[in-house]
Amino acid sequence: MTTPEIHRRHVLYGISAAAMISASCQHVAASEAEPTLRTITVNGINMRVAEMGDGPLVILAHGWPESWYSWRHQIKALAEAGYHVVAPDMRGYGGTDAPEAIADYDIHHLAGDIVGIIDAMGEEKAHLVGHDWGAVVSWNAVHMHSDRFKSLTALSVPYGGRGAAAPTTILNKVYGDNFYYMLYFQEPGVAEAEFDADPRAILSRLYRSPDSPRFPPKVTDPKMSAGGWIPRLGELKERPEWLTAADLDYYVQQFEKAGFRGGINYYRNLDRNWKTTADLEGVTIDIPVKFIAGAQDVVLGGRNAEQLDEMMRKVCTDFRGVTLLPETGHWVQQEEADAVNTALVSFINSI
User: Fold this and answer.
1) Cα separation of 142 and 318, whole Å?
2) Is residue 139 one of the residues assigned to a domain?
3) Which among 2, 13, 79, 85 is least buried, having the fewest CB atoms inside 10 angstroms?
């Protein structure tokens, strides 16, 4: 695993040797410190957050199927750079409440959770960073509550404005009777039953690098009727180097406790989100925005940096550019922690 910590360097003149030794010891202690986990009440739910550092507020929103732990490298780097970092277990995950109603996971609730964190921290505004579904939530949160955010950094999921049709309508036209995970997730109770029965199987297959070697899948029939998702994903022959056995164990334990239902319910609101955000049509995002992704992330659909830049500048009036990391896949902040930390700290420092 890479060592992700970015240290602020200060050249100090005219101080005593004792002061230098004291400062050095304080720096080592800060570097070895771990985030604090606590529960706060936001937007009508109890939310577990990992917290570290002092200074301007930075919120880190994870995606599916993840945890606050997905930001373990960035939390320390940003805290050492002088920020108060808060990484929640998003609604439905880990130590955060998982409401029963599917509608409780729509984009209005999810964006409201982020604003609720800002309020709970006693702040007016925050820098927002989101990956995967966390990026989707973040794009919408800054749209809906533009006065509450200083900047947005989106990882892996770009945004070019509201789609022309409901998402599942488009997906059904593309895939028909063939398997596609977002369509598989639409039927309540089905996908979560598969994943809850063996969290390690799904997580260990999804957490991979682009070049991770796999065994052949057990199901190769493309039809949805042929079965679930786990047997369609070949088991990895070895873990990627950025994921230790302890890392995977932690993720598995979180999903053994919370289950997969909450996170999958985000997908069950795709059409609802589209229908209830018509007022965002043509609305621009006017705060500074940065985009970071792995160049081999399948979510990008093969787009290069220039195409992504053009896409996002249509909706972002203060777009600060695209950083694509070569030979990197979807789990970018874990795969290339040092590079992501450098880009994040540099961008947020510039605001």
Assistant:
1) 13
2) yes
3) 13
Residue 314 sits in a domain of what CATH number?
A: 3.40.50.1820
Domain that holds residue 275: 36-349
Given a cut of 50, the residues of the chain with pLDDT beneath it are 1-31
Q: Concatenated DSSP letters for 15-42? A: --HHHHHHHHHHHHHHHH--PEEEEEEE
In a domain, 2, yes or no: no
Amino acid at 17: A
In a domain, 13, yes or no: no
Residue 85 domain-assigned (yes or no): yes
User: Could you report the per-residue pLDDT of 263-322, keeping only the tens digit for each?
Assistant: 999 999 999 999 999 999 999 999 999 999 999 999 999 999 999 999 999 999 999 999
Pairwise CA distance, residues 69 & 101, whole Å: 26
CA distances from 241 to 4, 232, 330 (A): 14, 23, 15
Phi, psi of 171 (to 5 degrees): -65, -40
Question: CA 94, CA 90: separation in Å to the nearest integer?
Answer: 8
Q: Taking a C-beta distance cutoff of 8 angstroms, is the pair 15, 41 a contact?
A: no
Distance CA 278, CA 263 (A): 24
Q: Are 340 and 247 in contact (CB under 8 A)?
A: no
Total tally of structural domains belonging to the chain: 1
Sign of CA dihedral 273, 277, 280, 281: positive
Residues 155, 62: Cα–Cα separation, whole Å: 10
Q: Which two tokens stand for residue 210?
A: 């682009």
C-beta neighbour count of 64 within 10 angstroms: 21
Residue 84 tokens, joined? 């108060």
Q: Read off the pLDDT of residues 73-97 as tens digits, 9 standing for 90 and up.
A: 999 999 999 999 999 999 999 999 9
Number of residues assigned to the chain: 351
Q: What is the pLDDT of residue 33?
A: 86
